[in-house]
Amino acid sequence: MVIFNSMWTLLAFTVPAIVLLLTHPCTAAKSELIITTIKQDPYTMAKGSQLEGYCMDLLSELAKKLGFKYKVHLVKDGAYGRVDESGTWNGMIGEVVRGEADLAVAPLTLTAAREKAVGMTKPYMQTGISILLRRDIVSQDSGFFDFLSPFSGETWFGIFIAYILTAVCICIVARLSPHEWNQPENEHNHFTLLHSLWYTAGALSLQVYYQNMAPNTFTLQCKPKEDEKHVLADHVPLGAGPHPKSPSGRVVSCTWWLFAVVLLACYFSNLSSSQSSDSSHLMIKGFEDLANQDVIEYGTLAGSSTLAFFKNSNNPSYRRIYEHMERRKSFVSSMDEGVQRAREGNFAFIGESVSLDLAVARFCELVRAHEVIGMRGYSIVTPLGSPMLKNLSVAILQLSEAGELAYLRSKWWASSCMAQSAKSSSLRAHGMKGIFLVLAVGLGLGVLLALLELTSKSRSSAQEQKASSSKISLIKSCCSVLTQELSQRLRTNNTKRDQETSDKSKA
């Protein structure tokens, strides 16, 4: 009797253990887990005989945390998993349901239908539904500062620096040149820094200043009289305010006018071209705009959860989108086909926002709409009731909290496009380097001419003072006169002091 009871107790503990091993062989009986996946960039990609990608890196991290070995194979029918009318699942979901695979690690969307058939972990990535289009068939939102779009930021900065340097050069030339300021001790210098800034800005706006002319004096004639020619030559200079009279000042002014004319021509040319191109574009911000137009064809992945979302939605706009796709049969068989059709133009591909972001990162001519609907997550699939489900979910949360999931996202979604802070049509500084070079040469030549003019005047003054002196003393006297002239002309407060001296002498 005792032996019988002992055998009964042994059977009571052994039978459930055998049943558990038969039901969940992957937890104990198998030396390695069978993983099914699908080829899709950047989740799973072929590299020689090996597989790499986001999902492969995620699987490796999970294996380290939970301590299991695995073997990966691609799904036989190349499908993600959907149920047919008879209730049979295909794709990766079907392989897990039939026991052909222990886990499915792929961008599988967490849905209610799949949750009934298999176990799904906590999402390892959040996604939604959005629209992928070519950048040149969609107009962007207009902003308050779109008038700055013809030039890039670096070009505007270069123009500002050129404006400041030109104004400073005009001020320096006006002080150095005797033709502008002959007697520093008695005359007032009109070209102050403030006036130079105003004069330079006036040239940019192509202002006209008629100096010393009575009203109605200037009349346009085909053949002006001889006496009127002098009036036109002396009193109709271009620009704003009193103008330079010296050769050096005129060199600087003419160079700046040339720079301003070329600059304005480029600006208005780019502005008109950008506005004319934007007028032919569609404004598609989201699905409402997509449903209300019939110019651009659109479609989604056949048999996907995205298609099921529009099919089961009660939103009128979403229903119209589904009816349009069903009527036109504008479905694609793979993500690559959808991206390729969007790149070819006149087609909007509707898909998972995460996958669309990858296409935008790799193909610079594509753009994703800002609106994202139907937020959902990607999960790992296990057999229904698997004891690994809880452990996998906890491990995914730990990886998320440690920043590992964010690192994998940045690693595999790295953009190959240069960051564009301005529109592609914006003219950059290196495209106008020629006119900037001409301006720099003109400014340098103007300052050099002003120094030569001052040197010539100093030499003449020295000759008058030392008419009977030797050549060596003449050179010394010329240098001393030039030094004295420079000190008088470059002082900032000599004008006020000399004006006060002049007023006292008059009194």
Number of helices: 18
- Spatial shape: elongated
> What composes the largest sheet?
9 strands, mixed
Overall strand count: 11
Low-confidence stretches: 13-29, 208-239, 277-281, 419-425, 493-499
Query: Which percent band covers the strand fraction?
Result: 5-15%
Summarize the structure.
The chain is an alpha/beta fold and 507 residues long. 52% of the residues lie in helices and 11% in strands.
Structure description:
The protein has 507 residues and is α/β, with parallel strands linked by helices. The protein has helices at residues 2-23, 54-66, 91-97, 112-117, 153-176, 193-204, 226-235, 247-279, 287-291, 305-312, 316-328, 335-344, 353-362, 388-401, 404-412, 433-465, 471-490, 494-506, and strands at 33-37, 45-47, 50-52, 70-74, 103-109, 119-120, 125-134, 297-300, 347-352, 366-368, 373-382. Strand 2 (45-47) and strand 3 form a beta hairpin. The longest helix has 33 residues, at 247-279. The strands form 2 sheets. Strands 1, 4, 5, 6, 7, 8, 9, 10 and 11 form a 9-stranded mixed sheet that branches. It starts with a helix and ends with a helix.
